[in-house]
Amino acid sequence: MSVLSQSQLAFANYIRDPVHNPAPAALSPERLQVYRELFFNNVRGFIDNAFPVLHSLYPANAWSALQQHFFARYACQSPYFLHIAEQFVSFLQEYTLTEQDPPFLAELAHYEWAELYIGTKKANQQPLALTATDVANAPLALSELAMLAAYQYPVQKISKSVQPAAPGALQCFLIYRDYQDEVIFVSLNHATLLLLNGLQQQPGQRLVELVAQIAPTFPQLSSAQLTAAALPLLQEWAAKGAIVLAP
Q: Which CATH number does 3-101 carry?
């Protein structure tokens, strides 16, 4: 490794984690502190803005320590704001909780990130809108601006006054951006989750195929009953942009 490369590595290591890495001798402590604050405060600001609910649950020192741990230990691949938020969520999937961390930390972060992700994602192409008649017969797909998510904690209710200590009933959501660019969260039951998951896994299915796929899970209901229940929901979601014509 060249002298320049060694100097750059020492500088980067110190900026990320000054507690465990010596300061480069060629730079004054004052100048290093300026760089350190500049880099860390930028990342901290991105995380604060992306996760307001999670931020509100932490004492200032504990939240700063979590951000510092991410800054020092996680190898981010992109400096963009949206990517840093996504990488923070990935970091929390493998992070070992401390006594100061709520048990729902990773799930709440994902829930908050999902709104940001869907709200800012760019579609590759303009989706083809579906009429109510189309939904009954055409090949369907989830919009590029939609996703399914499931959580063990009631993340939609968490606040300073509501902080569950243990997992509960599975919370499932369809999250999508409608034609007015509003991000919508729809709570799903078991049947609607299976229906949409089938569509996500195999785009291009028609209603009759989706119903046939979930029918074994609900032997007490006929195909006609399942279709009658599914059709108006799919039509509503298609009218708002969550379901589109399969390419």
A: 1.10.150
